[in-house]
């Protein structure tokens, strides 16, 4: 005798209702963890002891976004006592704080609640888009579980903090979905906003260029008509231009050609001092700083090899060519310009399509175990990188 599974209630049958429920339950869990940590948070540079949720959620770099929203960008780059370019708002792109400022003007609310509202709203939008994206490469069960992993991932608290990540992931997911659907013309406005929210234009331009090359070489089996070639190539060039737009804006306002890169380099100065930006050296510099020679170099090489092998595993190959091209392009971008430290976890968030590969196993024990580990990971990340303990050196 066989038993039939009870049918889901009518209100839960649409895919968007399922995603909404997953998102809502995950926010309850994450908000609870954040509230517990906020209740024991001591006084720090941004808040008093036991801060309110919105104050706790707008610490760290959210302060810089607040400065952009309220004051804007400096016309003169600040200098350290040693005469080097110091930290300033130019390291933070305008998309997120400008939107928050508009809502502040309309609602009359302060920065803190508005910043959190924007991030939470975009997190829901991203979850919905991510389901659509995964549904194009995975079956229904795996696509749904990929959304679960996205919503409970160790860094999912960032989706409701005063950072630009939630807004950026929304536009990145939309851009990847449009790429898979080959709706190239619609990518222009999406890339424009995305590139002014988080640094991404150059990485996405590389992914688009590789996409054009792949479609060209496979045109015998997958038609690539002239109009699509022109649009795809044009949007790749546009993405590259947008990747340079913010450094150009910093140059135009401050008069310094290297204003943006000098400002970004100021954040790694406490580790290795003030150095020039030499592509593909920062990971090795960081490896040596953290682990010394030769272990630091060997670990970086091992990470590069491990990621390369990961891209060719059966699970990752299930994601399709275009998503893998994005993953490879963004990884190459990080390898070229980023100095790894505690914010590395946050900088890896745009590689979230990999969650689709992790969602493939259908075992109930596996899925429950992964969710539990992710929630424990949230608590660990909050303790390590978000909560402030004295002279904290682990920024998120």
TrEMBL record:
UniProt entry keywords in alphabetical sequence: Endoplasmic reticulum, Glycosyltransferase, GPI-anchor biosynthesis, Membrane, Transferase, Transmembrane, Transmembrane helix
> From which residue to which does any coiled coil extend?
none
Known pathway: Glycolipid biosynthesis; glycosylphosphatidylinositol-anchor biosynthesis
Q: Which residues cross the membrane?
A: 20-40, 111-130, 137-155, 187-210, 230-253, 290-313, 325-344, 364-388
GO annotation, cellular component aspect = mannosyltransferase complex; membrane
Compartment list: Endoplasmic reticulum membrane
- The protein's name is Glycosyltransferase RgtA/B/C/D-like domain-containing protein
Which organism is the protein's source? Cryobacterium frigoriphilum
């Amino acid at each position: 005798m066989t038993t039939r599974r009870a049918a889901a209630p009518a209100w839960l049958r649409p895919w968007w209702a399922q995603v909404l429920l997953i998102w809502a339950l995950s926010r309850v869990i994450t908000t609870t963890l954040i509230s517990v940590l906020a209740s024991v948070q001591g006084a720090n540079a941004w808040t008093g002891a036991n801060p309110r949720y919105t104050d706790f959620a707008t610490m760290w770099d959210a302060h810089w976004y607040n400065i952009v929203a309220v004051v804007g960008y400096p016309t003169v780059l600040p200098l350290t006592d040693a005469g080097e370019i110091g930290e300033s708002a130019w390291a933070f792109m305008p998309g997120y704080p400008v939107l928050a400022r508009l809502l502040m003007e309309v609602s009359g609310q302060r920065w803190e609640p508005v910043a959190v509202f924007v991030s939470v709203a975009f997190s829901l939008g991203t979850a919905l888009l991510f389901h659509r994206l995964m549904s194009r490469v995975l079956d229904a069960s795996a696509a749904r579980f990929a959304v679960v992993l996205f919503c409970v991932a160790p860094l999912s608290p960032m989706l409701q903090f005063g950072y630009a990540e939630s807004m950026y992931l929304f536009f990145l997911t939309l851009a990847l979905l449009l790429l898979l659907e080959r709706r190239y013309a619609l990518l222009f406005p999406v890339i424009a906003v995305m590139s002014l929210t988080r640094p991404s234009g150059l990485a996405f331009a590389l992914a688009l260029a590789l996409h054009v090359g792949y479609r060209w070489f496979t045109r015998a089996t997958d038609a690539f008509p002239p109009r699509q070639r022109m649009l795809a190539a044009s949007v790749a060039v546009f993405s590259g231009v947008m990747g340079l737009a913010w450094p150009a804006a910093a140059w135009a306002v401050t008069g310094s050609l290297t204003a943006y890169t000098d400002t970004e380099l100021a954040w790694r100065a406490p580790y290795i001092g003030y150095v020039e930006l030499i592509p593909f050296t920062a990971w090795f510099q960081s490896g040596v700083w953290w682990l010394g020679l030769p272990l630091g170099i060997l670990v970086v090489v091992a990470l590069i090899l491990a990621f390369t092998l990961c891209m060719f595993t059966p699970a990752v190959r299930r994601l399709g060519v275009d998503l893998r091209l994005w993953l490879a392009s963004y990884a190459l971008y990080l390898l070229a310009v980023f100095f790894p430290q505690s914010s590395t976890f946050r900088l890896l968030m745009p590689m979230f399509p990999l969650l689709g590969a992790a969602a493939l196993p259908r075992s109930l024990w596996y899925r429950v175990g992964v969710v539990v580990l992710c929630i424990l990971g949230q608590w660990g990340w909050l303790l390590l990188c978000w909560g402030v303990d004295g002279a904290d050196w682990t920024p998120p």
